[in-house]
């Protein structure tokens, strides 16, 4: 069995410290809040067929929908939904500037 030469905890710490994690807790918190308020904003029935997927860097809310009919209905009500959703998110300092709908990834 081969022996590990020149192994030290200091070199292990250097390796661990050099790894960059892409976890963004603020983005995850904002996403969780948007998901929570999504259901409150559009109601239980619509939220069964749609859900929050992501918030882009330019504050576009990406949603996935069960089919194109749901996506189209949400698209038609986008301004009303945004107004209600942003009112709920205002106290958290979050402002959604638009929505993007995808029904192919359901």
Structure description:
- By secondary structure, this protein is α+β, with helices and mostly antiparallel strands.
- It has five helices and three strands, in the order αααββααβ.
- It has helices at residues 9-18, 25-42, 44-47, 68-76, 78-89; strands spanning 50-55, 60-65, 98-102.
- The protein has a three-stranded mixed sheet.
- Helix 2 (25-42) crosses helix 5.
- It is elongated.
- The termini are far apart.
In brief:
The protein has helices at residues 9-18, 25-42, 44-47, 68-76, 78-89; strands at residues 50-55, 60-65, 98-102. By secondary structure, the chain is of the alpha+beta class.
Stretches where pLDDT is under 50 for at least 5 consecutive residues are none
Shape: elongated
Give the total of beta strands.
Answer: 3
Helix content: 40-55%
Number of helices: 5
Strand content: 15-25%
Largest sheet: 3 strands, mixed
Rg is: 21 Å
Class of secondary structure makeup: alpha+beta
The averaged pLDDT comes out at 88
Distance between the termini: 50 Å
Strands in their spatial order, largest beta sheet: 1-2-3
**Secondary-structure element series:** HHHEEHHE
List the helices and strands and how they pair.
Blueprint: H1 9-18, H2 25-42, H3 44-47, E1 50-55, E2 60-65, H4 68-76, H5 78-89, E3 98-102
Parallel strand pairs: 2-3
Antiparallel strand pairs: 1-2
């Amino acid at each position: 069995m081969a022996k590990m030469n020149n192994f030290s905890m200091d070199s292990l710490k250097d390796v661990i410290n050099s790894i960059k994690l892409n976890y963004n807790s603020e983005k995850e918190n904002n996403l969780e809040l948007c998901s929570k308020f999504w259901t409150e904003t559009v109601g239980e029935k619509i939220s069964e067929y749609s859900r929050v997927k992501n918030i882009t860097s330019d504050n576009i809310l990406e949603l996935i929908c069960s089919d194109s009919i749901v996506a189209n209905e949400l698209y038609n009500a986008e301004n009303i939904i945004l107004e209600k959703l942003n009112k709920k998110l205002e106290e958290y300092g979050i402002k959604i500037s638009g929505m993007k709908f995808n029904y192919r990834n359901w």
